[in-house]
Amino acid sequence: MDDNPGDIRLTVEALKENLMPNKLNVVEDGEEALTFLYKKGKYADAPRPDLILLDLNLPKKNGLEVLEKIKNDTKLKRIPVVIFTASSAEQDILNSYNHHANCFITKPIYLEQFIAVVKSIENFWLNIVKLPPGD
To answer: Is residue 135, in this structure, part of any structural domain at all?
Structure first.
């Protein structure tokens, strides 16, 4: 869930390069993220995500608001949420973990590092970690 088209494009490309059979769904603001997660409107048939990459700086509802909703919902709270944001502010890190983010990663500013981090996230969370079954 990201509102920056450049970051979205880089993330999508990094995931495609890994040739992993993961479906990527992208939403551009916090309200749309919640609509997707609660399978409302045009997202009635949306799949339950195995992993959520969440930017803090989303329009309409910010990432912390979305994170709070996810982690307070019995059907969604076990989905790992990786905060993937431009911020490295200590308060943002504390707030994210206080709202039960699974990890906090500051987006690298250099292309090669950005791609390497996205691939690392995918490999760790979707290959190494044993995730709980979906509801």
So the answer is: no
Residues 6 or more apart in contact with residue 134 via CB below 8 angstroms: 48, 50
Domain that holds residue 110: 5-127
pLDDT in tens, 14-60: 555 554 556 778 898 999 999 999 999 999 999 999 899 999 999 99
C-alpha to C-alpha distance for 102 and 90, rounded to whole angstroms: 16
User: pTM of the predicted model, to two decimals?
Assistant: 0.83
Q: Supply the CATH number for residue 110's domain.
A: 3.40.50.2300
Instruction: Note the maximum CA span of the chain.
Output: 38
Number of domains in the chain: 1
Contact status, residue 83 vs residue 104, Cβ threshold 8 Å: yes
